[in-house]
Amino acid sequence: MTRFCVRALRHALLGGACAATFFGVAPAQQVAPPAAARSGLTIRLMSVPATTPAGAVIYVAGTFNNWDPGAAGYRLTSQGKQYALTLPDSVRGPVAFKFTLGSWDRVEVTATGGGVANRTFTVPAAGSATYTGSVAGWQSGPAPERPHTATPSVLILDTAFQMPQLGRTRRVWLYLPPDYATSNRTYPVLYLHDGQNVFDAATSFAGEWGVDETLDSLHPAGDPGVIVVAVDNGGTHRMDEYQPWRSTDTRFGGGEGARYVDFIVQTLKPYVDAHYRTRPDRVNTGIGGSSLGGIISFYAALQYPDVFGRALVFSAPFFFEPQLFALARAYRRRASPTRFYFDTGLNEGTTELGLPYRAMAHSLQAMVDTLAAAGVDTAADVRALLPADGAHAEWFWRREFPAAYRWLFGGNAP
After folding, report:
1. What is the pLDDT of residue 10?
2. In what order do the strands lie in the sheet with 310-314?
3. 67 pLDDT exceeds 60?
């Protein structure tokens, strides 16, 4: 799988902490072995590197088993110098996968040790199909450490900020505009999730958003600036904290999102407003994130309209939390309306996440229609983009952030 999927689906989907699962961190239970299947996709490895240890067990990890690199039942059977596995008959449609030796530290790589893209295949709706491929090399250990890229504008507010609503602590990052120390100005504030991925490549799992570089570069051109507060995801708690409601599928957890948002509203925001020169009103307070981080951002904007007047929502799988549609239907436009910035790839998720064709794009359109039916002026207060090349990946969200920031906060200049 791509570096994003390896980490994001190990940590969190869709942008945090390490464990493989569809929209975030997998819970503790083992993925059940597939039942024996008479038809379906047969995956064949025609050759493996000469460096493959004798007696090594080769596994396949993909969208069909929550990207578990060593799931029981997804090990290939040795057939001389070749290997094969037939997936359950229920695995149909687009799939993405990679081969491993049982862990992501031993995932397949190129012959020179470089990363390889996810393998993809579309399994027909019925009957049998065969995928054939070869592995050029195996990663020999953890990926090398990456250099730190955060600019001097970034500092760590606290490595263990108390979250009384959840009984946990969390690292919190802070970006201050370049002129913060030399002026007496006040600034809007943008709260972002998955803080590991916002400023620093060394802490990210698939590259960073480059928020600090973007804002630093806009400052000389006259941008008034914004304070950014980025909260790390909770690793194994990410799926729980970024979903307001518990999933009907126990693998995906959820149900702590309301308390997580309460932490931001009742604990973190008051602290930031008390210690920094902020503009604490709703028009100058935004919240944003990608994937499930986008879900919890949208929820926060609807649940606390008196707190958040700006919402940045990248690549949100709205179908994953259908209760959000009822919350959106009950939303009422305010005299000072909330701005919603949605951005999802037109074909996002179809290949890299194994979703039905344009499922994420369709769910975004459905949410915009829901807001319109609730009375939101979607022409003035909503920006919804579906770029054809968009992907569920950090590089895409990094590219889209500057335009999103300017649209959300551009009207706040003194």
Report:
1. 34
2. 154-163, 168-175, 227-231, 189-192, 285-290, 310-314, 339-343, 382-385
3. yes
Q: Which residue has the tokens 């335009």?
A: 403
Average pLDDT score over the chain: 87
Domains and CATH numbers, the chain: 31-138 (2.60.40.10), 154-412 (3.40.50.1820)
User: What's the mean pLDDT in 165-193?
Assistant: 97
- DSSP annotation string for 75-109: BPEEETTEEEEEPPTT--EEEEEEEESSSGGGBEE
Pairing between β-strand 285-290 and β-strand 310-314 as defined by DSSP bridges: parallel
- Whether the pLDDT of residue 239 is over 70: the answer is yes
Segment (H or E) for 288: strand 285-290
CA dist., res. 350 & res. 355, Å (int): 5
What would the two tokens of residue 285 be?
């307070």
Alpha-carbon distance values, 226 to 97, 191, 288, 302 (Å): 40, 10, 14, 22
Question: Integer distance in angstroms from the first to the last C-alpha of the chain?
Answer: 46
Reduced to 3 states (helix: H, G, I; strand: E, B; else coil), residue 231 is: strand
- CB proximity list for 373: less than 8 A, separation 6 or greater: 329
